[in-house]
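Here is one chain, start to finish.
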Amino acid sequence: MPGQLVPSGMFFTKGVGKHRHKLQAFEAALRDAGIAPFNLVKVSSIFPPHCRIVPKSKGIASLQPGGIVHCVLAEEHTNEPNRLTCAGVGLAVSADESHFGYISEHHGYGLTRTKCADLVEDMAASMLATTLGIELEPDKAYDERREIYRSKGLVVRTRAYVQTAEGDKNGLWTTVLAAAVFIY
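Its structure:
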């Protein structure tokens, strides 16, 4: 449809920042992720059909400082010493590239990188499966649901991008973020 912005590419990034002010910790995390010079607009969770994942360096090179950039962004902040924070984005796409996929995001406390990655991959895959008519039991483990996808002929590729950090031992604000950034 004319006039719609449909991304042709996407890249993943993540970062962590610390500072005595929360906003500046967020800015430091954006800088660490390489996306500080852009005006970020959070969007929901659809990965467009035929969209390509590109390396971060190629994606950032295609953007202009000050430009409006759409992204799925997960961020978390703490000033509590040693508190484990996490932010992650997950992607699930069907083997059929003409079908849209899903991007999920999670931010919170207490999850390791591996547990956060499993969670965001599971959420994205579950959203994709249900749009394709596969009913899932929410209490089943992700590994069990993956077997259900395979048995029904659905090939789902997933990936996760996660940043974790412990709150600064001296109480500085600590910010973690993970993003799926769209390019046009």
